[in-house]
Amino acid sequence: MFETFDHTADIGLRIRAATEEEMFCDAGRGLFSLLVDNIEQVQSCQTTTFNIIGNDRAYRLFDWLNELLYCFETEKWLFADFSVRLSPDGLTATATGERFNADRHRLSHEVKAVTYHHLVCEQTDNGWLAEVIFDI
Predict the structure, then answer these.
(1) What is the Cα–Cα distance from 25 to 21, expressed in whole angstroms?
(2) CATH number for the domain including 22?
(3) Which residues does 81 contact at the CB level (< 8 Å), separation at least 6?
């Protein structure tokens, strides 16, 4: 589950999940829901695999979202379905989606960057919590 929150001239994303893997999946879906209003219209046309190296949870979350944003900015990929497998050294993930199509997708926010500002990724008594601020 994810929700957005306002932060000065930026926008934040708060993710709560039962597992760490689910948190990473929801973070990816949350990012793309910021980019397009109708994320549910993204079709599962192609799957891409990602490998993120690093053992610090917060930095791994930052790198994951940064890589997804880079795919949108450079190749116009929209992803809506994710599968994440974590290891002590990083994560391997698959993301399924399609390229942006102006006839079917409505852009929402121009996300310029993932930031380190107030970056949170931690296990709580109720599962996992992540918060990340995006420069828009």
Answers:
(1) 6
(2) 3.55.10.10
(3) 29, 44, 95, 96, 97
State if pTM tops 0.85.
yes
Per residue of the chain (136 residues), what is the pLDDT tens digit?
766 666 566 899 999 999 999 999 999 999 999 999 999 999 999 999 999 999 999 999 999 999 999 999 999 999 999 999 999 999 999 999 999 999 999 999 899 999 999 999 999 999 999 999 999 8
Which pair of tokens denotes residue 112?
């310029």
Number of domains in the chain: 1
**Domain of residue 103, residue span:** 2-135
CA nearest to 33, candidates 101, 103, 84, 81: 81
Residue among 60, 58, 67 nearest 129 (CA): 58
Handedness of CA 97, 100, 102, 105 (dihedral sign): positive
Residue type, 42: V
